[in-house]
Sequence to fold (413 residues):
Amino acid sequence: MGFDASGKRIRRRVTAATKTECQEAMDRLREELGQAPRTSKTYTVAQTVADWLAEGLPNRSERTKNAYMEALTPLLAKIGHRPLRELTAVEVRIGLKALAPRYSTRYLQIARNSLERAIRFAQVHERVGRNVAELIETPQGKAGRPSKSLTLAQAQAVLEAAENERLYAYVVLSLLSGIRTEEVRSLRWDHVMTWQDDATGWQPVSEVGLDGARTGPDMLAIYVWRSERSSGDTKTPKSRRSLMLSARCVDALKTQLDQQQRDRLMAGSKWQDHGLVFASAVGTPLLAGNVRRAFRSITKRAKVDGTWTPRELRHTFVSLMSETGMPIEEISHLVGHSSSNVTETVYRMELRPVIRSGADAMDKLFPGSGADGDVVIRRRPRRTTDATRAFGDSDASPTVVRRQKKRRVADAT
Fold:
């Protein structure tokens, strides 16, 4: 099979217990050598995944690689020891099916897609002939916890419970503006803008401060231009937006700025300035896990039943805006969705009120209500016949009239 870098011949060897088995192994080897990939019996599925994570994901953050590895770990516990050249689609399907009772369908999808990409990376490097992971479909997994939203009373209780907490401004901004948690954590003070006057216009708070900012809803805005991603950009192009803030958000950001100045003095030389609006006690970026734990303690203090996450503040914003009657297209622009379909089918959790636009339109075309708004039911006048006149009962039904007539005839005979 040629020579290696040192000039030594490259040979392939097969071993077997009998001459017949050895001949069959040589036939398989000849068939394999006729193809492009030249696989090894010692190259396992686990090693395939390791090579893909190490070399096959350029410009990906460690967070993304860890997410793929976390999803693949339960599957590798079942098939990771298998040589890649001997792995079959049935083994992958059985492995995923065994995980279905414990993991959600989305989790299984990530595991299957990651394995498919890892084997494709091995195909590019001629380590395997076919990709068995792309031949199967993801099984149905365990039903995950559906997203939910707070009611208006629950949202008010959460805001009250968070007033004396470090996350108060975080909760207020997430709930009252609907921005993503990854956008809140990456928000910088130079993207918090205050209106000065017609000559200077919008100026960043990092330069002019918040002392002169009035607490009107049209005096403070945030530029949602960054997120916690490897590229630093927002999730989609439409997610890049600028939002006016309500008066309560302005007050909360003033409180946050005062708190951060106190943290800076207490940290001293340990302070790390990243320019973030929401940071730790030493200025470093907040970790998502720490934010979740702190938010759950707030919801517990607010006596809101169930397990809640910060991202559900965004769902709450969409639901509360929808309850006010705001068009779904406008809500979609506020939250930065690419289409209103995502806003309506995924994020809006409230039950829609009775749609009365059709009834209002028909009332204008076919008036049927009184002046006081009460519906007037008009009874159709009953037709009077000779029989009903004879019996003097114009309100009797025809059936009653016939029965009375038969009874009178019988009495007469």
Q: What stands out?
A: The longest strand covers residues 220-224.
